[in-house]
Amino acid sequence: MSGQGERDRFRRDYHPSRFEDKIGSRNSSNNNPPSRRLWVGNLSHGILEQDLTHHFLPFGELESVAFQPGRSYAFLNFKRADDAFAAIKALQGFPIAGNPLRIEFTKAVSPAPNLLACLLRS
Fold first, then answer.
1. According to the UniProt entry, which residue ranges have a biased composition of type Low complexity (predicted)?
2. What number of other Cβ atoms are within 10 A of residue 38's Cβ?
3. CB-based burial label for 16 (10 Å; 0-12, 13-18, 19+)
4. Considering its fold, how many domains does the chain have in total?
5. Domain containing residue 58
6. Using one digit for the tens of pLDDT, what is the confidence trace for 48-90?
7. Which of 17, 54, 59, 60 could lock onto 87 through a cystine, CB 3.0 to 4.6 A?
């Protein structure tokens, strides 16, 4: 009888991660192409914002951080897309407070329908 660990190892060994699927190449078109905004998951519930940002700041200036203590995820917005790309490439799976990070690009936010209509009328 195989245990849970063997099933997890099978998934990792034979299936690419969602990160690899999404960025296969930097210029590929996919659901969440590289952007300035990252979703960072699998965070320890005891992690503090400054502990998290400390690991991302070496890659570039952060425009914003949406983080609530006790949550297992955060959103980090870099000023430059290249910096976000470098961070996700370097820190994917990096352990912080004992948990390996899961990082994904977030979906682009489309303008609100009313805002778009106003812009088109101008």
1. 25-37
2. 24
3. exposed
4. 1
5. 4-121
6. 999 999 999 999 999 999 999 889 999 999 999 999 999 999 9
7. 59
